[in-house]
Amino acid sequence: MSRGFDPLLIATNGVQLIEASAGTGKTYSITSLYLRLLLERRLTVEQILVVTFTEAATAELHERIRTRLRTAVQGFQDQDGGADSFLCQLIARSSNPEADRRLLARAVSDIDKAAVSTIHGFAHRGLQQHALETGLLFDLELTGATHRLVQEIADDYWSAFFTPWTTGWRAWCNKAFPPSNCGP
Fold first, then answer.
1. Higher pLDDT, 180 or 41
2. pTM value?
3. pLDDT tens, 21-46?
4. C-alpha dihedral over 51, 15, 5, 82, to 10 degrees?
């Protein structure tokens, strides 16, 4: 029997993976954990890494974090979390609501520095920032669309391998094994 996910009970140290089907409250859980990391661990938005799959999900998540932060600032100011029971519990737990409100207001102003990215973007940034340690180029380009690159490599190999052959032999190979023009 599985139990429901409670963002107040999950540990705020280490790596946390939230994986669930669409419409199950992942974004709400992530934004709740984000608030806890800010308030309980006193982390800055630059110290919290949120990674998701798509650019669209990244943009949505970034905006939802911003919105949740603004709501929390207002909640701590009014000492009322409204219909958000999680926020109500955070406010009730606070030993210094005004300091927490200021901390959250600072997070709102710094939200554009937040590390919310795709897995691809995170990997690319890590490889760029540590190019010397990894032995990779600073201007490394990662791409998800590899069909053109694979085709270019195949064409280069074909041309390098068959160029030394006689014209007759190349003609026979092209006739026997015509190049495929099928898509990916």
1. 41
2. 0.68
3. 777 888 888 899 999 999 999 999 99
4. -70
Contact by Cβ (8 Å): 122, 49: yes
Residue type for position 14: G
Please measure the distance between the N-terminal and C-terminal CA atoms of the chain and give it in whole angstroms. Answer: 43
Which is nearest to 40 in space by CA: 124, 127, 99, 80?
99
Give φ, ψ of 104 to 5 degrees: -70, -40
Structure tokens at 158: 């074909």
Tell me the C-alpha distance between 119 and 159, whole Å: 36
Tokens standing for residue 32: 């709740």
Residue located via tokens 């990894």: 134
Domain residue ranges in the chain: 26-134, 147-176
Q: Which CATH code for domain 26-134? A: 3.40.50.300
- Bridge partners (DSSP) listed for residue 117: 51
